[in-house]
Amino acid sequence: MQRALPTERNATPLLLLLPGLLTIAVFFAAVVTTGATSLLDAQGGWSLQQYARFLSDGFYRDFVWRSFRIAGYCTPITLLLGYPFAYTMSRSSPPVRLTLTLVLVVQFFTSYIVRTYALILVLGNNGIINRPLLFLGVIGRPIPLLFHEAGVAIALILVPLPFMIFPIYSVLKNIEPNLAVAAASLGANRTRTFWEVTFPLSLPGVLAGIVLVFLFDLTAYIMPGMLGGGYFNMIANFIQEQAMAVLDKRFASAISIVLLLVTLLILYVIHVLGSRLRGASG
Amino acid sequence: MRAVGWFARSVTALVVICMLVPLIVVVGASLGGGNEIAFPPNGLSLRWYANVFERQRFLTAFQFSLLLACAATSLSLVIGLLCSVALVRYRFVGRDAVANLLNSPLMVPQVVLGMALLILFSQAAIVSSLIGLGALHLILAVPYTVRVLSAALVRLPVSLEEAAVIHGANRLAAFAMITMPNMKPGLVAATMFAFVTSFDNFTASQFLVWDRTTLPVEIYAYAMIESDPTVCAISTMLIIATVAIVVLAERWVGLETVTG
Amino acid sequence: MRPLLKGCLWASAMHGLAKLTAAAQTTIVVMTWGGPFMDALNDVRPDIEKSTGTKIEFVTQANSVSGLQRLEALKANPQVDLWTTADATAAVALANGIVEPIPAAEVANLKDIPEKLIFPAGPTIWSSPRGIFYRADKTPFAIKTWEDLWDPRLKGLVTTSIEQDKGMFIVIAALLAGGSEKNIDPGFDKLKALKPNIGVVYKADAESLKFIQAGEVSVAGWAVFGVIYKLLEPGSNYKFVMPAKPQFMSVNLITMVKGRHNQAEAAKVINAILDAGIQERIVERLGSVPSNKKAKPPARIRDVIPPLNELYNPDWEYINAHYGEWVERWNREIVSR
User: Fold this and answer.
1) Are C43 and C29 in the same domain?
2) Third-level CATH fold of B56-259
3) Does ipTM exceed 0.85?
4) Does C227 contact B at CB distance below 8 Å?
5) CB A195: neighbour CB atoms within 10 A?
6) Interface residue A113 vs chain C (CB under 8 A)
7) Distance of alpha carbon C263 from alpha carbon C269, whole angstroms
8) Nearest-CA residue of chain C relative to B220?
9) For the segment A24-63, what is each residue's pLDDT rounded down to a tens digit?
10) Is 1.10.3720.10 the CATH classification of the domain at A73-232?
11) What residues of C are in contact with residue B119 (Cβ under 8 Å)?
């Protein structure tokens, strides 16, 4: 357990943070450039016209809502699938652990573009899910996965799984097995041990995973683009379209800043909830 | 080893199947005899693998991607380690804000980031793929390493280090020899995230390629006009290479180091 | 000491001479697409270098628009001499002062390029017919005209896009309905009628091909020949048809970037690329149609290209100005579910 930390008054943390902050400074310069571009109206003068245009139109707000909605329900499902996986990995024998690690690592090294093409072959009306089911007569019509929200959601749940699993795994691995033994000796059954001892201790990993997956889903571009078939464009697709097809960099910049601000807000909420939970677990 | 309940095991099995299916499709399609990406493949042939080697561009792009990924990974690991120590072991004004700040590159769609960096670097008269893409990949990797290493470090009590210090070790040595080994799973995870973020990156990288391209951009360029399974062959080869590296690492350095 | 001094002087003289000769040979930087495009150009590079006496260096762009973004970012200090790009993007670049018209007097081969293929921003280097690409085994009838796309038998089987050639598909629909790019409403009405037939909207030509190969849709309503010609072997299930009217070619131009100082040499390189022999070798690789009248298209595509009597050249400046609105309407009226 960490003992309470006094507020640091010397410069050590700043020195440690310096390289990181420098890197972010370059990023920040890019954000400032984007922000400055977003404040230009169509004639080149300073104004909030781009923001007004975006926020006042229900059609546009839909894009934001849709992206947050999809990211919002895909992330918990990824957690639901990823946590047991991480748990199994942390408690298995070495050969099993190695195999599971391999499966995850190999996922990583297959380029997104190729994996998305593969998902087309899997999820499509003519794909390896629908074809046998149709052939066997289990279903009368193909399950509408590809070019529908379901297909995009499946991809957004599965593809970032490693981002959820690895942080949770690295934390679980370090939790003292003796803690669970101690709990058991005090009469707690396995379920109770898990919920009252293991899970709370693994929260830092869970929160890290949630944040990484949520951001991945929210800013996803390749998968909603190809698997949505043009019908489920998310906010990154819309920004890309404005920036690259319509060549309206100013509008695209404004949308990006809006996205950035809303995301910061949501992350703040997650963070507050997270500390509340962690505080409660002692 | 603690027994794992049936729920955890069945979910794990389900996830493994879901992960393997697209990969099987990719590998299967790469062996296709016809001119198209199909699964099940029409006939079997290795000619797409031969095709990869006939194209010098893929090899050059692969080398460059590898170089970038190694550079971005090592730098972001160091930065991530330093930042996570600062964020976890110290309390200071604005700590939460800094943590969020270090996360921020993930919040901006890559299109925007790529274009903004292009403008920035052009104004600074920097026209090198290596510097531009190196900076981009570093910016994208640091949030991952900071996140993962912070989560790993939070669980490790500082009291062990202090015990070592009392016994005469200096602070740095105590950290390196006591805390860091316990961070192995986190370090491995952070390395992988950083590496893949760099190696696989396309959306933002496409703006910053110049005299040299990366593998994803080359794959995209190829897929723009050709529709054959060559790109599947490349992916399959990368899969095989990855498996080989992980298995060999396990043999030589032991499973604990690989999986943590 | 003396021999050493002499040796040093000699070495530095040689070095200086080498630098001078290197400087005497200009390097022309050409920005173009990677992959097969750069392969094709690299093939002919030695010949171009020899005939023009320049060195050629290629740099990559992932697509025309990122190339444009890069040139805009580098406007104050351009690093590229020549840029190959799509016609619509070139028009934007010309309007924004990124590229300048080429010195026609210095490019002799321009006389062999058809008028219609010389744009204000630059001459065409190759083009690819746009038409309808479909799978005979999954399409209920043989498609011959644009109107066939609206046939109710093709419900859910069609894929199309407006991002390719900047909204040309809407223009085609407008032309069929009696309008044009300047009178686009009939086009949107016609597209609304097409909605039930549209199975998926794609963003890049290669994507449309993937969807068709995967069997998700069977007709690409706005296909480009260069991407699919390899599948058109005799006996294949795949068919490409370029409807008789209106016709459209997806065109790639070469343009001259403004603000560089190698105009004369760059013009020579353009001239070399437009040479009939070089053209034939480039298009052989790409499966495209050369722009030089004297160059023959690759044998295997010769039969598929009809006489280009009904070629429609849209007003790109007008389209560029209104494309944003069109995208809005497309998103709201056509692609919504």
Assistant:
1) yes
2) MetI-like fold (1.10.3720)
3) no
4) yes
5) 11
6) no
7) 10
8) C62
9) 999 999 889 888 888 888 787 888 888 988 888 888 888 8
10) yes
11) 73
